[in-house]
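User: New here, any thoughts?
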Amino acid sequence: MGLAVFTHKSGRAGGIFFYAAYFRAAQFRDACLRSLVVACLAFSPVSFAADAPLAVTSYKMAGDATKMRIVMNFDREPDVKWFLLRGPHRLVVDLPSTKFAIDAKDVKARGLVGSVRYGDLGEGVSRLILTGKGPFAVDRLDVLKNEDGSGYRIAIDMSAASVREFDAALANQALTTGSTVSSDKGGRVGTGPVSNPGHRFTVVIDPGHGGIDGGAEGLNGTVEKNVTLAFATELRERLAAVGKYDVFMTRETDQFLRLDDRVRIARQHEADLLISIHADTIRVKGLRGATVYTVSDKASDPEAQALADRENLSDQFAGMEIKDDDKEVTDILIDLIRRETHSFSMRFAQTLVGQLSTSVDLINNPQRSASFKVLKAPDVPSVLVELGYLSNAKDEAQLLSADWRGKAAQSITNAIALFASARAGAGTGG
């Protein structure tokens, strides 16, 4: 009001003073506005985003006990460091302070991953811990930008490995850093086999079925899972008596095992040979005798395909079938058969048929093939031995005979000796 009175009573000089005062008032006003804007920006969400925790928007795992992929999506790019620990075998992933908005069912143990833990360590660090079901290799751990611009993701590929391979990765880790950025370590861990000059020829014997999955049942009530375990135990004892091999069994009790777990055990022992033992039933009257199967995408005959279909359904007995329709992990669900491994499997199958023919009855065309999941280890020569058919009374009686089991087990032992010797001579065995 004082300024208005001055204006009305003033002449030209007063007018000039008025405009000068007005200009200074405008400057003050603009300065205040700028200060207000700066203050508002300081408390705006944009400023908060820089200090807000990283957010995990989704977590997915897919695969089986031999190979797994884990994918975690983030709202922005994470600064990732990771390392391995043993006792048990673990992959530790360190992140900036992170909010884990994860569905409990997505982190439920499956396949090669025995448990998933995560949480805040304090001081701006969060941690994800993946505990393996035995030793594993980290084939790849990458931070990738999502193609749709929605954020970033971590993609982790793990595969079953031996204790020796895991320990070699740990030793390599100790020579570099205790905690390494993912892109640096991805090329160092799990990229291939490590030389093992002290390795002895290793056999893994797989007694088919077990636990809730009894397998076939004979005319007189004989259950396949019991026959296979008894025979596998006999074979193990004969191989151990030779003293030249390391021998392991996928199960030593009445235990249910997934098919991929059987493959995992063979790979983690660095097996030179996997022998899966079975005793099936068949509707063809009069069919009896032993059969040796190798893996093939196309079955050698309808009977072989039918047998493979039955055996491959074993996992469903415990309601543990893995669905593999996640588009993001289809690249890990590939054909695992390597040509060299398949070639070794075929050679052993031929040797085994020759040895078994000297002591037990074989069916016509005893060397056959079909797409058995348990034979699909990528680097382990594998065969499935069908000891006989429980649907045949004579075969059933022989399978229960300790004398017959001894003769058959000795024939397999002889075949393994020939195969191990040939591989050692070629420089590929222990």
Q: What stands out?
A: The CA atoms of residues 227 and 400 lie 7 Å apart. The first helix runs from residue 2 to 9. The two ends are 104 Å apart (CA to CA). The mean pLDDT is 79.
